[in-house]
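Incident review: delayed structure delivery

Summary: a single-chain prediction request sat in the queue longer than the usual turnaround. Root cause was a stuck worker, restarted by the on-call engineer. No data loss occurred. The affected request and its eventual output are reproduced below so the record is complete for anyone auditing the incident later.

Affected input:
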Amino acid sequence: MKLVISTIVTAILFFLLGWLFYGVIFTGHLSSMQHLMRPDADLKMWSIALGCLFQGLMLSVIYMRTYKGESPIKEGFIFGILTGFLLALPYVFYVWGSYQVRYRAVIADGVGMGIRILIVGIVIGLIFGKKKTAA
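Output delivered after worker restart:
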């Protein structure tokens, strides 16, 4: 049941944080990527939502299979940092090497991704909590 709850909560969180980071905070920095994006009227929100759902599911499954059951915040933070770096750092280099965009846009995108995954990692840790030990 925790997997289902974690998947749904993190999908919603990814969606809202994506709007906050890419729709509000980093809009100025990401302007050099605008020509790569769909116009607002043509956005496929269902696809973005599905991507958030799958990302939440996969991170929740990985966390569920690897956490030790100690401090939920500490383990979630470490999980978020590690998976954030795992996903965001290579992504920054792939985008910078492949697209004609300003480096500030790529860095803002990578930082946004890393911070979102860090926050979601902490939330996943809190949802799974401490493991119950057998008496």
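Verification: Residues 95 and 106 are 7 Å apart (CA to CA).
Action items: add queue-age alerting; document worker restart procedure.
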